[in-house]
Design a protein that fits this description.
Low-confidence stretches: none
Mean pLDDT: 87
Number of helices: 10
Largest sheet: none
Helix content: over 70%
Shape: elongated
CATH class of the largest domain: Mainly Alpha
Number of strands: 0
CATH topology of the largest domain: Tetracycline Repressor, domain 2
């Protein structure tokens, strides 16, 4: 028979209940309905308990967005390994692109929120959104380097960051089209992202002109 939860385990379980309650509220009606009292009510805890885990609503939303990003990052890390092991398998590459689309489709209000606050300076949510974008960019650059793209100079590294930004922008634009109902087929969107990579793959043969002529 399993023993009682430790204080730390019980606290973590309550925190997760609050996060799940916030996620449910957002999916049911949008982030405007998220408040400390409403989240506590849906989680089945006292209002004061909310503040034992989160300083305020923004603190909760940052934690929720980072939790979702950690889930996505973990899934993509596995798929990136598979894609690197089979670099010419476009079906594996397609699934790598489909995964973020699936997560966005499952959490459209959080996705819209992340886009909306990204350029809000000095706010916790804005800082969180920019950090998540930066981490995504770094992950894509690391994959490109592993695929053999040149990255020996600052110019070549900058070029890889440009490619990463192209992939991020394309994914976000197509995801917006999907959640608005304009592009309903996720498989078709993944195909379009694979098509985008065909152009950026040409960068593998580029070299830093300054280094080449120096």
């Amino acid at each position: 028979m399993k023993g009682a939860l430790t204080r730390r385990e019980a606290k973590e379980r309550t925190r997760q209940r609050l996060l799940e309650a916030a996620r449910g509220i957002i999916l049911a009606g949008g982030e405007t309905r998220v408040s400390a009292s409403n989240v506590a009510k849906h989680a089945g805890v006292a209002g004061a308990t909310f503040y034992e885990h989160f300083a305020n609503r923004d603190d909760l939303m940052v934690a929720l967005s980072e939790q979702l990003f950690d889930e996505l990052r973990g899934q993509l890390a596995r798929q990136r390994r598979e894609a690197l092991e089979a670099p010419n398998d476009e079906e594996i590459l397609r699934q790598e692109f489909r995964t973020p689309l699936e997560l966005i489709a499952a959490n459209p209000d959080l996705f819209r929120l992340a886009l909306r606050v990204r350029h809000h300076p000095g706010t916790p949510l804005g800082e969180s959104s920019r950090r998540l974008t930066g981490n995504t960019r770094n992950d894509i650059v690391a994959e490109l380097v592993a695929r053999g793209y040149p990255a020996a100079t600052s110019a070549e590294r900058r070029r890889l960051e440009m490619i990463a930004d192209i992939h991020i922008a394309a994914t976000e634009v197509l995801a917006l089209g999907h959640v608005s109902g304009r592009y309903p087929d996720l498989d078709e969107l993944a195909d379009m992202l694979v098509l985008v990579t065909r152009g950026t793959r040409l960068a593998r043969s580029w070299t830093d002109r300054t280094a080449a002529t120096g």
